[in-house]
Amino acid sequence: MPTDSVVHQLAIRAGNKLRDERLTLATAESCTGGMVATAITDISGSSGWFERGFVTYSNQAKHEMIGVPTDMLDKHGAVSEPVARAMAEGALRNSRAQVSLAITGVAGPGGGTKEKPVGMVVFGWSNRLHTEVETVVFKGDREQIRVQAATHALRGLLKLLDEKER
């Protein structure tokens, strides 16, 4: 699947910023299935600023690969702000990166509930000093939701990197 052009352009911007600041990124993705990592590694030279990506689609993978506590998953569900925070922080703990982003959500078309509808995606961004989380509900089909989620995650990363400078 070709990477969406907006996602690709944001990945380039993020890469330039990370390279300029001599930082590396780790990703923890669930509903996007590695879309952000793909956009990043489509860029020549990304090995200079992309440390690793975790695709943690199942709860077991979230626990085993990045240390999300099983009791947290049981209590809040995979699509929740506590889990997105734990994913972002776990990606840093299990890598050498200085910044991370995490994405977990319901891309559809099934799997949604009244409390967690299709299109609900939760993000986490961390720089080892603080972690930001945000919940957004996107509209569209599965592919549109995933592209919107990847776009939002990269925009949030750029915001995190800009705040670091202040």
TrEMBL record:
InterPro entries: CinA-like_C, CinA_C. It holds the Pfam family CinA. The lineage of its organism: Bacteria, Pseudomonadati, Pseudomonadota, Betaproteobacteria, Burkholderiales. This is CinA family protein. Residues 9-160 form the CinA C-terminal domain. It comes from Trinickia terrae. NCBIfam families: PncC_domain.
